[in-house]
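> forwarded from #structure-qc
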């Protein structure tokens, strides 16, 4: 599964092997090592709309021979674990930042 992306995009359309398009929201771009990864949340999944804890997917961002950025699946388990760990750390940092902001607002 891969699709060209634009740096300004927030909604990404990926096409599966059957040719069906699926819309995703770009949640975050992560840099792990010397590679970039995109965290995407499905927009066209009815279950995800009903569930606040919907599944996110992580894809490697690569550059093709034309200099365009594309998404690629992560096939290596070790690479996947490293990226998933970086994403969890990012979520924890965001959560801690939100708590700090809430505490600052309470003091005002």
């Amino acid at each position: 599964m891969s699709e060209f992306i634009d740096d300004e995009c927030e909604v990404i359309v990926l096409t599966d092997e059957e040719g069906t398009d699926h819309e995703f929201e770009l949640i975050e771009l992560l840099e792990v090592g010397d590679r970039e990864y995109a965290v995407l949340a499905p927009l066209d999944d009815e279950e995800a709309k009903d569930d606040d804890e919907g599944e996110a997917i992580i894809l490697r961002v690569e550059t093709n021979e034309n200099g365009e950025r594309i998404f690629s699946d992560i096939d290596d388990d070790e690479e996947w674990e490293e990226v998933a760990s970086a994403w969890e750390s990012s979520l924890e940092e965001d959560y801690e930042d939100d708590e700090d902001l809430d505490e600052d607002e309470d003091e005002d």
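QC bot note: The chain has a mean pLDDT of 79. The chain has two helices and five strands.
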